[in-house]
């Protein structure tokens, strides 16, 4: 396996769970290239960490991480939180990550399998295997927001569907859509590293499943939606990002929700249900449903033709 050879700043913060979304939002807005949250105790795929959570943020080598971290936490009113800053080589980071990241049931029907745990790939009868190296991109499959999306994909995808995934991260949702029978999928992300990781994951799945996946990844944001054909017969629109990003892209989002067969938006903290529902009512063409898991929500709908 070949690894990217970049160097990054890693900021690790031990934070109460109820403040995780707020800290993530602030660090991402401040230029974090990537983030993930350790939801389980080291080396486990069950045993949810109950109260505190470990947040990891990655910044480019030229970012003033040592000065930024204490200032950012003080600005948010969390000056007393413990944090660690280190410089990491991507290759070293990935080797460390491999030790604790193992195959697990992403949902009741989809298994997530990293290539270094192929001998434990058979999670149970009937599971589809989604092969993945998350690397530094968001989309390890451990987060409830991703799991809610994969459950939506399992129930929704039809063989004629084209899937659009904005904020594709590791490529996990677009690849899940292909596994569950979509005709094609297209993912975009603002992070170059995420796009590289998604493309590598597509190739990994093609190799392991012995089939070509009609799935593409590119750098882009909501504005790139207008470069695609979106139709009410076959397009399924997916985005797992944060509420403030949906709100900042309201016009493009409104266009997507009105012109697709089905849609799902994830990444909404339960605490924001009232405000996000009010926002969505101003842009969604009809009624929608909500599901909740571990304080996170997915909003979804099948548009009638
Ligand atoms: C929560 S992660 C979701 C990753 C993956 N799709 C999943 O469901 O696990 C959100 C992703 O959206 C990307 N992102 C943030 N703002 C974006 C924007 N305006 N347009 C496109 N991607 C964006 C981030 O870089 C990140 O990879």
Number of strands: 14
* Tally of alpha and pi helices: 9
Side-by-side strand order of the widest sheet: 10-9-8-11-12-14-13
Which fold name is given in CATH as the topology of the largest domain?
A: Rossmann fold
Assign the CATH architecture of the largest domain.
3-Layer(aba) Sandwich
Structural class: alpha/beta
**CATH-level-4 superfamily name of the largest domain:** Vaccinia Virus protein VP39
Mean pLDDT: 88
* Sheet with the most strands, sense and barrel status: 7 strands, mixed
The poorly predicted ranges are 42-47
Strand content bin: 25-35%
CATH C-level class of the largest domain: Alpha Beta
Bound small-molecule species: S-adenosylmethionine
Q: What is the terminal-to-terminal distance? A: 46 Å
Computed over alpha carbons, the radius of gyration is 19 Å
Number of domains: 2
The H/E string reads EHEEHEHEEEHEHEHEEHHEHEE
